[in-house]
């Protein structure tokens, strides 16, 4: 074996030994998971429910016509302020006036008929009574048949009088209805407020109002002194809301201003049942009415608005980021036997097990351990901690994917904070 060959073989052996050594060393190393961490500390938390809806006056009246006819005079415009009893519009009274005249003529005729029936009844009663007295004195002068005929005639005339009196009552009612119809051709404001909607113009035909007929509404008068935001709240949130809760209201028309309000009413029945997206489940909403305490005078009905209803406040309580809280599924309960739910091949939950909430606590060796925690209210970004953590402890606060994949005992390293790009014209 030559000297050159020996040298080459030596180099190969040394290289192989070095490679094996490097592999052995690195095989024992555990790769650290890069995460964001945060210390458990005290914060002020505000729990809220946000929902959207529209601005509506607390009190409004839809004015409709009680008679059908042409509008011959219109005295208001949309946006006008009116007082209770103020004249609004006039429906052509010609047809109604003619109907009243016919009713009055009918009343006069029935009264004349009743007077004649009364006279006939009185006369027939007298004839019967006179013949009855004669028969008592001289039975042969008046036969029984004659007396019976007079009795029958008196009873017929009495019945005719009763019918005539009933006809008079009907005619009086017809006159009264015609007079009411005539008065209804003049429409006045039922309440003070603002004309927020005007659906007709002078010359159009007013249609007699009926239930569930929107085109019968002539105009709407609203009391704009008390305005409300009617929002729809999901069933999962409505239980946290109480009458009297304060709210911050953002009206789209006044984007730069936030208004204050309070909850004045919560519906007891659902107002909508719509199919939830991507599922066959039904999303159930409840109407919550939030009164505006300082509405601007420019506010109009149906303005879009968003209400942030404050449901709870906490001062200086331990808190953790919402993203930090994770769930361990189907954890075995202490002293419980597990079993598969009968009749289901793949049960969502096993008997004797439950889902537990917790966070990953960072130890001194940069290894994490899952710890069960009990949380309270949820603010915008943090949960209130009731049990399980102490102030100053470090927990994993992100990312979501990292938390989801973490295991007990995993080695972590803290990610460097992202550098913010300075705004133009400013120094970093």
In short:
With 428 residues, the protein is α+β, with helices and mostly antiparallel strands. Helix content is 28%, strand content 39%.
Verbal overview:
The chain has about 425 residues and is an alpha+beta fold. Among the domains are: about 35-45 and about 315-415, conserved putative lor/sdh protein from methanococcus maripaludis s2 fold (Beta Barrel); about 95-185; about 220-315, Beta Barrel (Elongation Factor Tu (Ef-tu), domain 3), CATH 2.40.30.170. The chain has helices spanning about 5-25, 95-135, 145-185, 235-240, 400-405, and strands spanning about 35-40, 40-65, 70-75, 80, 85-90, 185-190, 195-200, 205, 215-235, 245-250, 260-275, 280-290, 305-320, 325-330, 355-360, 370, 375-380, 380-385, 395-400, 410-415. Strand 11 (about 260-275) and strand 12 (about 280-290) form a beta hairpin. The protein is elongated, with a radius of gyration of 45 Å.
Treating each run of at least 4 consecutive H or I residues as one helix, how many helices?
5
Rg (C-alpha, Å): 45 Å
β-strand amount: 35-45%
The percent range for helix content is: 25-40%
Structural class: alpha+beta
Q: Residue ranges: pLDDT <50 for 5 or more in a row?
A: 2-28, 336-346
> Terminal Cα separation, in Å?
68 Å
CATH class of the domain at 33-44 and 317-414: Mainly Beta
Question: What spatial form do the alpha-carbon principal axes imply?
Answer: elongated
**Order of strands across the main sheet:** 2-9-12-11-10-13
Q: What's the CATH architecture name of the domain at 33-44 and 317-414?
A: Beta Barrel
Give me the strand/helix succession.
Answer: HEEEEEHHEEEEHEEEEEEEEEEHE
Give the beta-strand count.
Answer: 20
The main sheet comes to: 6 strands, antiparallel, barrel
Would you give the CATH topology of the domain at 33-44 and 317-414?
conserved putative lor/sdh protein from methanococcus maripaludis s2 fold
Mean pLDDT: 84
